[in-house]
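# step 3/5: fold
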Amino acid sequence: MTAKPEIIIVGAGIVGACLAYEASQRGLSPLVLASAPVAGGGSATAASWAWINACSADDPSYFRLRHASLRRWQVWQQQIDGIGFSARETFLWDLPADDLAAAVAQLTALGYPVALLTGAETAARLPRLRERPDAALHTAIEGAVEPVATATRLIEASGATVRQAHVHGLITKGRRVTGVMTGDGPVHADEVVLAAGNATPTLLQTVGIELEMQSSDGLLVVSRPVERFLEAVVAGPDFHVWQRADGCLLVGGSFGAYAPRPGLSTLHRNALAQLARIETVFDCPGPLEMDSVTLGRRPIPAGGMPRVGRCPKPDGEILEGLYTVVMHSGFSNGAGVALAALEEILSGTRTPEIAPFGMVPV
């Protein structure tokens, strides 16, 4: 593709924001369409824990993508004010000590800067820690960002035009997508990039493409501000937590799908129980009171891995003019996927980072 294409990005969460900023670095001025304001309250982005990491080596291909994305985030953080880490470095003991040691060995072999700490070493680095683990995985290069503020700043820095409109279908001509149909009428472009999270399958169905999902719910509890005592991202078997610059804690349970605790039927009671759990793990500087609780829907394609690329019809023929990005975590993967996606859209070159994660015909 030689001339600069007109691009529509459907979705203004973190994935759409990353794509918009990367597009701007290629000299493009995308139009971002979303049914709600940037990273609006009902989005997965607004309910995200927003941890940017690559400390999982179960799938080497996926590790390479996440590591590339982390490096891209580091570049962006030098370019854009307001998207730096609010919590720096990671301490994990969400697995048994032997499994943590194996993970550290795998990550070290892949060139990732990670260490296995003893319980005493972990406690020395987290002075208010009450529950000392047997061991912890530690890395200093990861962190967490303010989710809504980060998505907003990326779109602002991109200079993209943002239009609030409900996109309810794709427009085609022959074997090419030429635009989208919105509640305000058609909007045409050379390329349509879907970054609509859980709404992506419905939009693809309007052109006869099926995308299977295994989305799950994630609990996010935000506390009222307390004195700053936690500078890192910390996760154990049944909790994960980091503290914003304003003193609020962002708290979740396990990294799996949300399930109410036994005997606690309401979301409110489960949220309070999660805050109480943090008070047992840490010697907090004051009582933890709940500010808000959300149950976000994580957009996870079937199989758990990202789906990024051109979309084949059931007969295998590619539908031109359409590019799809759907994944969890949008924060960990977003910068790297955006870099690779824009390269493929503009040059046709599919980079090794996203090569294993293409769209699969159903």
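# step 4/5: annotate
The helical segments are 14-25, 60-79, 97-109, 119-125, 147-158, 200-205, 267-281, 330-347.
# step 5/5: archive (pending)
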